[in-house]
Amino acid sequence: MFSHESSDSDSEYEEDIEFLVLATLIKKKEIKRRRYWVHPVNNKRESKGEFHCLVKEIENDAQRFHQYFRMSKAQFEEVHSLIEGDIKIHTKFRKPIGTKERLAVCLRFMATGNSFRSLGFNYRMGFATVKIIVEQVCNAIWKNLAPIVMPQPTEQMWREIAKGFENVWHFPNCIGALDGKHISIICPINAGSTCYNYKNEHSIVLLALVDAHYRFIMVDVGANGRNSDGGIYQESLMGKMFESSQLNVPPNKPINQNTEPLPYTIVADAAFPLKTYLLKPYSKAKLVNNNPNKIFNYRLSRARRTVENAFGILRARFRVLQGPLQVQPNMADKIVLAACCLHNFLTQDTQETQETLMDESEVSDGNGLVDIEPLNRNPSQEAIQVRKAYKTYFVSPQGQVQWQMQAITQGRTRFN
Predict the structure, then answer these.
(1) Fewest C-beta atoms under 10 Å: which of 51, 184, 209, 240?
(2) Alpha-carbon span 315 to 362, nearest angstrom
């Protein structure tokens, strides 16, 4: 009796297994039947896609072409010629998406910040295809443009940068303005609070050194948003190379005929540590009834504004940076690096830069770029003496500018 019941139970169990297997096969067959090699909508890409219709129409309209891609047609062609070999796809199954169309998709993504899904509908491509194209083109831009528009500076290049700061911003021996910005991203997968910053947002940090004409000299991207700016700088390759004197910085040079040689310096805000090669403003506590300190802060602020302006131009030109990037940190790094390269490439044209700054219709009130949190550190006596020497020069007849006293008395000085 016991054996008979056991046999019936085994039989019912086998029938259940067969039913589940059959149901699974039917479901897979249904799913397979609904799949497309290319969706019928996307099959019309070459006749109705945005690249083959709208872009072709605006090719002969310089203004609209520039508004669409954030660059002129000649600049588009130059970028394409530099990266074409790295974004070309060969396939035996079907006609691949052309290299110019791939570049157009990436530039439109960076110019607008539209989602991959939105661009997929506009260009009649698969949503995953758009993501792959953006990542591939960003990699190609960094690989091919960075050695041209952002090479590692030589000793002569540092001298030219210092000359620019002295001529334009009246700050001698300055080889760059340094700052960092939080770039907002969506919450990374399984990241916890790794990228959670003091503004209650998830972010990665763009650390940049900028010359007198708003061009990036060096950038470091990808540090977690929870880290402090000074700590990010100390741990970055840029900071380590400056600290170990590996960046071909020229030897000390007198800023006036009657002064001792002073080191070439970087100007930064209060978030960074004071060093012999890195100057920061005096704290508010040291500004009370102290005009020389106020003048130093004013002169440093004038030179340091170049990095703030560079971030503003970058954000105005590439709207993808105006809100949280809807990608994971690794891809966000690639997008930001490509944007910095394109910024330098486009900033070679001063007229184009000024137009970008003045185009208020292209700037939103978003907060994609956020300031870095200040961090207090005790500087060395040598660094304090270097800052004091620059301050003395700025209040001397040889180093002063005629409007500096008026500037500090009218309260326009940035103290930190």
Answers:
(1) 240
(2) 10
